[in-house]
Structures are given as structure tokens and as C-alpha cells.
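Known limitations

Files may contain more than one protein. Parsers should not assume a single record per file. Below, a two-record file is shown to illustrate correct handling: read the sequence, read the C-alpha cell line, then continue until end of file.
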Amino acid sequence: MELMRHGTRQSTMMSPRHVRGTVLAVLLCSALAGCGSVAASAPAGAGASSSAPATSSAQAASSAPASPASASSGAASSGAAAGAAASGCASVNQATSVTVHRVMHLVEPTRAGALSKTQHNATLVRALFSELCAAVSHPSAKKGIIRCPADFGISYLGTFYDGSRTLAKFIYGASGCQTVSLTADGKTRSTFMLGGTSTAAPKLRTDMAAVLGVPTLAIAQPVAGSGGTGANK
């Protein structure tokens, strides 16, 4: 009976061949499982590695200095903005010519003839423009009735140009109580040439005479020989 019991126990034990087969199967499954995990994680790793260069490239591109083309484009834009055409009193230094017409409102005949002139001397043009701007920028605070002796009704109408572009128009009442009216950008500013206004533009009459090519005395009153027409070339 004892021998039978030992035999039965031996029949339930695995043979060496079965053991080796089992071990090989376990090792093979482990190897396959390991390969599978690597293969499955490989795309994630590849995605991470591929996104990293993209991020680095984007950061490098954003931090890289501007190319010569973009830099020159920015400079051109800045130059265009800086060279934008001004108007009104801001364009004094752009004025290249002025056309002036003398107008007389006297009823009785005078000896002064018609006077119309276009001045192309930029220095003279800008000096007159600057004086007119100084006058309207310091308007007189005088109020009430103002008596104006020796008012011969002489005034000058003019237009300042930058080439063919109109910069401003003015009316200068030269006799009696002098007045100045300057129109630019659709706005008109006017003032009497009294007090601080006269002090701000002391050379207005002189500069007007220089532009017209006549004696200063002829600006405010009719003087024989002060008439004439033409253009300064």
C-alpha cells in the first residue's frame, strides 16, 4: 500500500520536459510583453520628441533678430510716417511759394495800381508764413470799439503752397488797424495786430514787402509807383 501511495505521488509531478516548456513559455511571454510596452510607448515618446523641436524652433524663431527685409520694411514705414505732409502752421518749413493779391476797398480813385505776385524764394515765403502764424497764435484780447486811423482799405489775399499742394490761405489788412486771418485745415483764426499780437509778429509788414518786392511804406498806404504785376523767377 505504501508503494502505491508513492507511485501516485510521482504520477502527479511534472516531468523535466514540461518544466522546461513552461519556463520557456513564461520567458517568451515576458519578452513579448516587454516588446509590446516599448512599441506602445514609442509613439508617445516620438510625439514628445517631435513636439520638443517644434517648440524649440518656434521659440528660436520668435527670439531670433528680425531679418533685413523686415527691418527695412519697418524703416520704410517709419520714414513714410516721418515724411508725412503737414498742414497749417506745422507746414511752414514745407512752403515753397506764395501768391499774393492786393485788394483796395477805397471809393475814391487812388494812384496805386493792381498788384499780384507769386514768390518762389522759399526763405522769403517761410518768413512771411511764420509771421502770420505767430500773429494768430497770439490773438489780441482787445475788446470794444477800436478806432483805426488812416484806414485806406488795403488788404492782401494770399495762398501758400508746397509745390502744387495748398498749405494755407490768409488775409492781411495792412492799413488802419492791422488784421490777420489765416485759414488752414478748414479752420480760420483771426486777430487784430495789437498789443501782444504785434509783439509776437514784429516783422509782418517787412516780410510782406520783401515777398512783394515793394518798399515797406507801400504796404500800408497807396504810393505812386508801388503797383505792378508779375512773378519772381
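...continuing to the second record:
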Amino acid sequence: MRPSRPKPATSAVDTALEKRNVPDMAAPRPVRGLYAVTPDTADSDLLYQRTEAILRGGARVLQYRSKNPERRLRLTQARALLELCRTYAALLIVNDDVSIAQTIGADGVHVGRDDASIATARAALGPRLIGASCYDSLERALQAQRAGADYVAFGSFFPSSVKPQAIRAPIDLLHAARARLDVPIVAIGGITPDTAPALIDAGADAVAVVSALFEAADPCAAAHGFTRLFESRH
């Protein structure tokens, strides 16, 4: 059994939210297909409604991404999203926050260069999934694979309203990564149904999408459109 890790100080409300036993999980299945990423919002009802529609449309992975400073809100949202993912047999990955992923029993965590190391995340989460942002760097991806990452993400491949200043990655990077990596590859950044096929053909195992899903007039139909792209290639 892994040694317990000290928890940061929490409020009485946080303590009440965290009072439940979360069993260790077996290693989740690999990352494939439509990888939905939540927008940063405090409107929980709208978040749940749109997420449910996207999962119904076929998203197999959901990343919960929130920079809200209120831990109570992030815990509440993460737990509700985990329940939705369980209903639709989808994976829930928490962005950045290893502590919340560990507390709620999420399927994994996604870390960037300014977040916890892969080794730290692995010590906390055991066999659960750990993804690593690699931006436009194949060398960073190779290092992440050697460190034990379960998948890597490249991008932004296209202009993104979510991260307009994000590093841009060339599509040829996916060809090179496919030839040298053994772990699944996720493409991210400004992806739409029109731009996704080129990324999939170049070697992406999954496409991570925010705006084209959560801002769609019909999120379920939008998700289904993305999932069909993968079905037609396998």
C-alpha cells in the first residue's frame, strides 16, 4: 500500500465534501477518440447540461479544467462530472490538480510544465492515467514517455480562443511523434470538425476540443460529428 500523503489545510466545508472513502482504481483503458475539455465556468448547471449532451454524443474522455480559486466549487463540479462520466462509461481526467483527482477518485490527471511532475502525480495516483502537455516539442514528449506518462498532448495546432497565446505546433509533428512514441497522442488547440481529419490522419489518437463542443448550438450533435471521424478511420 502506498504511504499516505499529507493533505493541505482545508475548510470545514471542504472537509465535509471530502468525507468519503475512494478506493484505488485499476489502470483505465487508453485514451482514444473524442477528448472533451470543459470550459472554465462557475455556472455548474450549464456545465453539467452541456457535458451530459457531449458524453451522450460519444465523447470517451472528459478533462475537467477549472482555474476557479474556490476549491469547494471545483470539488463539487468534479464529483458531478465524474458521476456523468461513469454513467456514459467515459474517463474523467482532472487538469493540473493532483489533489482533487486523488480525492474524488478520477481516472487520472493532466499536467503541464508548470504543474506537478509526472513522478509526483504517479506517487499520488498509482495506476491511474497521467497525461502530459508537450506543446510543440517531440523531445519533451519522449521525456514524458520515459517518465511514465500514459499519453501526451501536442498543440495548439490552430488558433484557439481559449488560449490565444498558446505555442503553435505544426501538423508534421504528429507524423514524427507517431513514429517514435508508444503512448497515445492527443492533439489540441482550435480543433473543429473541418480541421480534425488532418490531425487524425497525421497520427493523433484523440482530439481535445473545447469551444467546438461547449459553444455548439447542439453539443450532442457536435460530439457525434467528431466521433464519426474516428469510426470512419477504424
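Parsers that stop after the first record will miss the second one. For reference, the second record is described as follows. Residues 75 and 100 are 7 Å apart (CA to CA).
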